[in-house]
Amino acid sequence: MIRVVVVDDHELFRLGVIDTLEADGDLTVVGEAATAGEALRLARSELPDVLLLDLGLPDRSGLEVVEELARERAACRIVVLTVSEEDESLFRALEAGAAAYVVKGVERSELLHAVRSVVSGQRYVSPRLAADLLRRMAPGFAPATILASLSEREAAVLGGIARGETNREIGETLALSEKTVKHYVTNVLLKLNARNRVEAALIGRSILGRRTRS
User: Could you give the domains of the chain?
Assistant: First the structure.
């Protein structure tokens, strides 16, 4: 059973999300909150598998909740569920430690898929949001061309970035030092014209996903 805490200051929306989750057989809501303070308290006391979190909370930003739990190395995975479709909000949330970013108004199936994805160790961004972001980041985005520009080792490092791995984890997989991985990451960001690892991860998932399907 996947244990979830739902955090949103709009009661009717929060109750609707709870009903959606609990209608599914393998999800149970173990707590609900309307503020950042309550969210932190429940994350620490209930130890949920997933914290479903709005960014616009009345006492503190949801981003601060993400950052605080990341510093504590909390075991719960955070799914941001918000109205904001701004690139900056997406980047900040994922860089702070959120495992998924979903925009309010998504279909029930997508929300459930996001929750299950993060529990299985994956990161998730709404496909529409990711596609729009990629188009703005890289007009004329050509996966085959970008992939061809990467060396075999750079492509392997990009795969690790796309999976959300740290430099140390990538190094352990590829038998490389962290310093060497950092060098490859720098090269990958330059070749992808990506500003940060979040952008690189989005591009990497698109490239590698298409290669798998081809």
Answer: 2-133 (3.40.50.2300), 139-213 (1.10.10.10)
